[in-house]
Design brief:
- Helix 1 packs parallel to helix 5.
- This protein has seven helices and no strands.
Length: 167
């Protein structure tokens, strides 16, 4: 292997990592926008507000629910456009990797919507409690889902390299 080939391989690996990070950033934000607008009334804060309904708050909640419906439709079209652009300029493999990266965000996003807290905060609190000697029980299904999503998240990187430069 000569020096130019080695430089090209290193460049391709770095380019794959940059593209992977961009796909994660865009896909995570698009799926977050879609899921949060789709499940707008399911958040913990909105449920608490509905219990203490005053006429002004009720009108504002209805306005926000209507705008959330419009936002979910717009974000769905943005996701479809994003995937179409990826498919148009690359191939079906890179599009599949982008879909996988978006799908790996959904379980954490659903947990955030359910609890009203960032998953980063939830995981830090659990880790802190474990260090303090408390036992933090996670359901087996949550552990399994975390394993699968993390596995898919990291496996997508070599697949992205394959579909960008070898396929």
């Amino acid at each position: 292997m000569n020096f130019i080939t080695f430089k090209m391989i290193i460049f391709n690996i770095l380019l794959t990592i940059i593209i992977w990070i961009v796909l994660i950033f865009i896909g995570t934000n698009l799926i977050g926008l879609f899921m949060r607008s789709l499940l707008y009334g399911q958040t913990k804060n909105i449920k608490e507000l509905k219990k203490e309904v005053h006429s002004v708050i009720e009108q504002e909640i209805k306005k926000n629910e209507q705008s959330a419906k419009v936002l979910s439709i717009v974000s769905l079209f943005l996701i479809l456009g994003y995937l179409y652009i990826i498919f148009y300029f690359t191939n079906i493999g890179v599009t599949t990797v982008a879909i996988i990266l978006m799908l790996t965000r959904i379980p954490d996003l659903l947990l955030e919507i359910k609890t009203g807290e960032s998953t980063l905060f939830i995981f830090r609190r659990e880790r802190f409690l474990q260090k303090m000697g408390y036992e933090v029980k996670k359901s087996k299904s949550r552990v399994f889902i975390e394993f699968i999503t993390n596995f898919l998240y990291w496996v997508s990187l070599p697949f992205l390299y394959y579909f960008l430069f070898i396929y």
